[in-house]
Amino acid sequence: MSYVKHLVIGILALAALGAGINVAVDPFDIFGMPRIEGFNTHKSIGTERFSKPLQAVERRPKTIILGSSRCLHGIDPRDAPGQPAYNLSVAGALADELTAFARHAANATTAKTLILCLDFASFNDARTRRQGFYDDALGPHGWVKSLPQTVFSYAALKRSRDTLRRSLRGKRMVYRRDGFREFEPRAGRDEGRMITPVASFLSPGGGYRDFPGVDAKLAELAAVLKDIPDMDIQMTALIPPVHAVQLEAIDEAGLWPIFEHWKRAIAEICDATQHMCWDFATYSPVSAVSIAATDSFGDSSHFTPRIGKMIFDRINDPATAVAPFGTLLKRNTIEDHLKAVREARDRYRRTYPEDVEAVRNIAITYRLRKPDGRSAN
């Protein structure tokens, strides 16, 4: 009996020691522990879909930015109105993940403003939530429900070990405390690297393939936007900019009709729920430029924080913003807007035929276009 008693005490002591280490090191960066150089400065946060919602609670922001990698890399929280701000965006976020995070931001954080970034590829109805998405981390009690993973698990202890190692070695931190992550360009800065995301989106299994529609995920968005006014948080939605070659890739994939249907639906939803939604994914003076010469994009799919600042200027003070950059989507003007985008697309194709041809060659490689130039769709 004494042996069992001592064994239990020993196990509890080890568990308490491990928990104490995890809290002190704070590898997920969610407890607000003091950062000590060489000890816990370089966090190993693990899966961002798990850790960032918990960080958003601890940071106590007034503004939350939420989207996919485009807004993760392109919108610096320091430029956002309503400080402090936190960037809750995660790479590859799908619409159902974004709607879950939006409810979390409204119900579990101190934020009073939500900037919601909507990417077309996020609304592919054929795609489901990514691995590493934890509902237990969301909501008013998510912080408590996640304690078994953040404090009392062996996985957390390994994260603490990794944090100690990174801190001792001074390894570069991937995320800032405000959730922002700098864009990491592929090797070199040339036309080939800049257009690489087009090939990724058009390749089998890519973001623009196996794309049956968007209506199911749009319904989830509509439900959240309908509830937001009752959640004591103001929301502005935006469709973030991409380089024109990325828009060409949507067309090469045969998705332009769905793309326009998606924008029409967003205009309808935002009008019905009385939220503002801005469209920056157009052939604007910012995006309809040579892919080889632009300094506004890290690659064809990711804009720079300089453009992110221009987005805030456009939303907050349209009179001083670069025009025409960003259009407020409204139900009664959406058709005129879509027509203007098509006309700007035609001008872009006449001005930059080499960039257009580069996208079409990628489409031929993946059999979306026939070698004679005809669409395979």
List keywords for this structure.
377 residues, Rossmann fold, 15 helices, 6-stranded mixed β-sheet, 8 strands, alpha/beta, single chain, two-stranded antiparallel sheet
What is the rounded distance between the termini? 75 Å
Give the amount of beta strand, in percent. 5-15%
CATH structural class: Alpha Beta
Total strands: 8
Architecture blueprint of SSEs:
Elements: H1 2-25, H2 48-59, E1 63-66, H3 69-74, E2 85-87, H4 95-108, E3 113-117, H5 142-145, H6 147-150, H7 154-169, H8 191-194, H9 196-202, H10 215-227, E4 234-239, H11 244-252, H12 256-273, E5 276-279, E6 297-299, E7 302-303, H13 305-316, E8 327-328, H14 334-351, H15 353-365
Parallel strand pairs: 1-2, 1-3, 3-4, 4-5
Antiparallel strand pairs: 5-8, 6-7
